[in-house]
């Protein structure tokens, strides 16, 4: 026994043979699990017994104990609430045992504890000790700690020398939740009248399908559908009580739908730029000089990407952009406090435009970025990042350096049509969809500044994914995956505590 004084010394005598020769003045208590504790003067001890674990409620019959001593036993497990009922316990000695870890709530209820001694134990120094490190830094008690037995990099290090920040004990995973029939090319989330909604662009079904949450069934269900044959993008815009929906269509002309007020159904109100938008491939919403605008990327050689801004009851062409370049994707972003627009095309590197004097002007292109099908941006730690999708070769992550985007990371991506970043709760994710393999989910590691693999998305496997969107409902986080050759799949994000 290390330290102690007279009061402790009384309890350090060896009780190994006291089953037959027990002092009549000693107290004895046992629980249904067979644990026997001998004690004097408000204390109890277990020395060199055959007990291998302390189970919940082991000391409920000894509520007045002030001191407990466990020395040279073979304890390997101490369960949650093992010391329940010991509200008066002040001294707890668990020395020279075989404890590799202690359950997270093992010490729960020890309100009077002033001294804990764990010396002589060899701990597994992983996420299972994180709670103990955090507890030691906040508790008003003196603690003698054991040492690490593993991993090898921490072997023999004392627990009180460990930094809790070195342990990454929170994990997340996406698991399947629901399937929505019919294939889709696009998916967007929006909030209307305080309720989250999702709209799917379903070209083969010929509609924009709006989904809402069914509180009774705890599932997503269809709320309304808009007739839109060969639709490639359904882009929502909420202005107070009014809801607009832009339906970009490959054939038959793109349309604007409107709902003037809640309770009414969406109705077509306008055909959008029929002479310019001949083969739309993408549509984005952006705000310019306080007004909402749409930009529609056109992939035909005879058409042109067009900026449409609100003017009175409708949206009308404000500017033609990037004619003759077969644009496949548009991305609106803000750089240096000003609106910017990034266009990807089948014929050249992505081009960055900035808003100057009421129109977009070319600013620069993106170096080392040939054959980019689509671009998406995200912000993290004050920086702006781009995810660039490439069908052949490596998709790329770039970072804005104040004058242009510079290559940061490359990810193998054969068969990819979408590389989309999503901030879900506090986690910055990026999902790389593939037509030939499992779609990969990456997680941005703040300490490293790189995307690290998190998981493969599925089962069920996604079949030709084209777009992702997330939605929050009653504190739950859902990911929608729109697939071109299969049904839309919905996944739920779960947070895991690895220190439990």
Automatic annotation (TrEMBL):
Primary location class: secreted
Region described as Disordered: 1-34
Protein keywords: Glycoprotein, Leucine-rich repeat, Repeat, Secreted, Signal
InterPro entries, sorted: Cys-rich_flank_reg_C, EAR, EPTP, Leu-rich_rpt, Leu-rich_rpt_typical-subtyp, LGI_related, LRR_dom_sf
Subcellular location: Secreted
PANTHER family linked to this entry: LEUCINE-RICH REPEAT LGI FAMILY MEMBER 4, LEUCINE-RICH REPEAT-CONTAINING PROTEIN
Protein's UniProt name: Leucine-rich repeat LGI family member 4
Source organism of this protein record: Pteropus alecto (Black flying fox)
Top-level taxonomy: Eukaryota, Metazoa, Chordata, Craniata, Vertebrata
């Amino acid at each position: 026994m290390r330290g102690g004084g007279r009061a402790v010394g009384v309890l350090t005598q060896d009780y190994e043979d006291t089953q037959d020769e027990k002092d009549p003045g000693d107290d004895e208590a046992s629980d249904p699990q067979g644990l026997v504790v001998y004690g004097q003067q408000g204390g109890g001890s277990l020395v060199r017994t055959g007990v291998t674990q302390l189970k919940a409620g082991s000391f409920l019959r000894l509520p007045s104990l002030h001191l407990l001593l466990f020395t040279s036993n073979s304890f390997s497990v101490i369960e949650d609430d093992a010391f329940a009922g010991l509200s008066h316990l002040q001294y707890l000695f668990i020395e020279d045992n075989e404890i590799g870890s202690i359950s997270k709530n093992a010490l729960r209820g020890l309100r009077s504890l002033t001294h804990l001694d764990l010396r002589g134990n060899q701990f597994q120094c992983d996420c299972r000790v994180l709670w103990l490190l955090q507890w030691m830094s906040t508790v008003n008690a003196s603690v003698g700690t054991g040492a690490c037995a593993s991993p090898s990099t921490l072997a023999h290090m004392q627990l009180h020398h460990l930094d809790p920040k070195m342990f990454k004990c929170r994990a997340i995973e996406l698991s399947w939740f629901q399937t929505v029939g019919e294939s889709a090319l696009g998916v967007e989330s929006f909030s209307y009248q305080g309720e989250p909604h999702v709209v799917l662009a379903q070209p083969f079904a010929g509609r924009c399908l709006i989904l809402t949450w069914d509180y009774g069934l705890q599932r997503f269900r269809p709320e309304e559908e808009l007739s839109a044959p060969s639709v490639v993008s359904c882009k929502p815009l909420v202005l107070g009580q009014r809801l607009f929906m832009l339906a970009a269509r490959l054939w038959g002309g793109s349309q604007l739908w409107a709902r003037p007020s809640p309770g009414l159904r969406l109705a077509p109100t306008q055909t959008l730029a029929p002479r310019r938008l001949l083969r739309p491939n993408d549509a984005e919403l952006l705000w310019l000089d306080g007004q909402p605008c749409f930009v529609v990327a056109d992939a035909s050689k005879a058409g042109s990407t067009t900026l449409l801004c609100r003017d009175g009851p409708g949206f009308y062409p404000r500017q033609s952009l990037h004619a003759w370049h077969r644009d496949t994707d548009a991305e609106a972003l803000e750089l240096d406090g000003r609106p910017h627009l990034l266009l990807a095309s089948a014929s050249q590197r992505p081009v960055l435009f900035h808003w100057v004097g009421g129109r977009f002007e070319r600013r620069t292109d993106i170096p080392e970025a040939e054959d980019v099908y689509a671009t998406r941006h995200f912000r993290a730690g004050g920086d702006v990042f781009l995810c660039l999708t490439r069908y052949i070769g490596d998709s790329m992550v770039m970072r804005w350096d104040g004058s242009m985007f510079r290559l940061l990371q490359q990810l193998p991506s054969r068969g990819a049509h979408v590389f989309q970043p999503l901030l879900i709760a506090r986690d910055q994710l990026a999902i790389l969809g593939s037509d030939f393999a499992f779609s990969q989910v990456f997680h941005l590691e703040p300490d490293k500044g790189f995307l690290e693999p998190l998981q493969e998305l599925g089962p069920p496997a996604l079949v030709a994914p084209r777009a992702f969107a997330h939605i929050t409902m009653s504190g739950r986080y859902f990911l929608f995956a729109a697939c071109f050759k299969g049904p839309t799949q919905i996944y739920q994000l779960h947070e895991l505590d690895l220190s439990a």
